[in-house]
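pinging the channel bc i need a second pair of eyes. not urgent but kinda urgent?? the chain im working w is below, pasted from the shared doc
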Amino acid sequence: MFCPFCGKHFSQLARFCFSCGRTLDFLKEQTEEEIMDLCVGYFNAGHSYGVIVDMMFTLHGVSLSLLSLKTKLKEAGLFHRKQYSSTNAVRNAIRLELRGPGQLFGYRKMWQVLKQKYRLRVKRDVVMLLLQELNPRGCEMSARRRFVRRTYHSMGPNYLWHADGYDKLKPFGLALSGCIDGFSRKILWLVCGPTNNDPSVIAHNFLSCVRNLGVVPMRLRTDCGTENGTMAAIQCTLRQQHTDYFSGASSHMYGSSTNNQRIESWWSIFRKGRSQFWMELFADLRDAGHFNGSHEHQCLVRFCFTEVLQKDLDECVTLWNSHRIRTSRTASCPGGVPNELYYLPHRFGSRDCGFGIQQTELDVFPEARLSISPCGDPDIQEYLDFVMEHIQLQMPNNWEAASELYLQLKDIAQL
């Protein structure tokens, strides 16, 4: 058996190639049921038939013809232009989304949410008309002017990762950390926690991402904050043995936040499409006199809202990584779906610029056990856990339940 990436021969199938370090899990034989599940999953993610066939072969080693794929999807009752959902079902789903961050969506994003989250078949024009009916103010606000931006250049996926923290929710006790691939615009991680200033937290996020992808980027760019020092050292250490121009210390680049173009641009999109809702929610609690910015109130917000916010962030990442970025005449990077740009660069005349990493190389950096409690204070965390268990309260699964729990615990603690 040979590695499909480097051609190295090996006697038995392993999870990783001993020569290049690439993952070989896709070479394992797939059952018919697993193949069907993969095809349905890629279809629901909005990929075209040709991309699904390419995904199945490239990522899973399953060779399917276009006719076989259409037959499987037909058996599952999936069609691109048949069996549209009822208007009432679409309208109810839109109303449900408009109760949360979905009120900031345009009709293209809402159409994607309806397809992927609610598994509804609907024409985009119908979504546009329903949004004009159900959210006329949001449609009016979405008609905004474009900014003129600099041209961004990248050789391919994993050529340059941009990592940064997001502090707009910090006044309310919530800190975000994120990273984006410069070429594909794929979000690599987006994590909510009590802090994004602790170097061990940022290094933990970076190592978890490298372990999951099995690849280290050619270059990593961050701002000059002290929280990025450990992550920068890990990146330079992992690239020390390589012989390319950006190996070793050159594989990490410091710069100002304003020049960290890709991630700062995405934070702007995130602000308009997601975080504005949370900022206004917490601002309403503050204006109503339920939040004063103290350490205790911030810990209580983190305890009640962290899991709900992280769930929303995970949904945001999934939708972003599978939506289509329109081609720009002034950009050197091609348009397309971030997941397709990242995993299938050969379809866009590019190549993967990352370096395969073996698990043994990562074992030098053991996953740190983060000593920071979820609410940021171990004493308050212990008290809140006792109250939840004693009164038999349940952790919330949406922002409304989280707000009710916050007010209830605030009254119990007499804050």
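so The mean pLDDT is 88. and The CA atoms of residues 1 and 10 lie 6 Å apart. — does that match what u expected or am i reading it wrong
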